[in-house]
Write a structure and sequence with these properties.
Ser-Thr/Tyr_kinase_cat_dom, Transferase(Phosphotransferase), domain 1, Ser_Thr_protein_kinase, mainly alpha, Prot_kinase_dom, Protein kinase domain-containing protein
């Protein structure tokens, strides 16, 4: 049985049964951004329970590729902060992405973000 990718996007606050805000979605956004960059499923060698334990108790996060642009590394690591209050709001994430748009489009290998580089068409 194939593992659902959403199992490995479980946010810290939800795992710990703490009250949560929109910042849980910021954490998930960082994971989705990592998935887009790598084309991989986070924590794919772990069960959902193992991944949750590693994230909460050991501070484990997905490994960021060495060739990742610093701006994207910064966004992901800020989104994954264990303290939800430190995670950036989406308005700030959008501004960071807008400021870095040219760098992202010029430096990301075309195989990455392929769906975003090419205009979408209706078939």
């Amino acid at each position: 049985m194939e593992k659902s990718t959403s199992e490995n996007r479980i946010q810290l606050e939800m795992i710990q049964h703490r009250p949560y805000t929109q910042k849980v979605d910021v954490y998930s956004f960082g994971i989705v951004l990592w998935e887009l960059l790598t084309g991989m499923v986070p924590f794919q060698n772990m069960t959902a329970v193992q991944a949750a334990f590693a994230v909460v108790n050991r501070g484990v996060r997905p490994s960021i590729p060495n060739d990742c642009l610093p701006v994207l590394t910064n966004i992901m690591t800020r989104c994954w902060d264990a303290n939800p209050e430190v995670r950036p709001p989406f308005t700030e994430i959008v501004m960071m992405l807008e400021r870095a748009e040219a760098e992202i489009m010029n430096n990301i290998r075309k195989a990455r973000f392929r769906c975003c580089v090419q205009p979408m068409t209706i078939d």
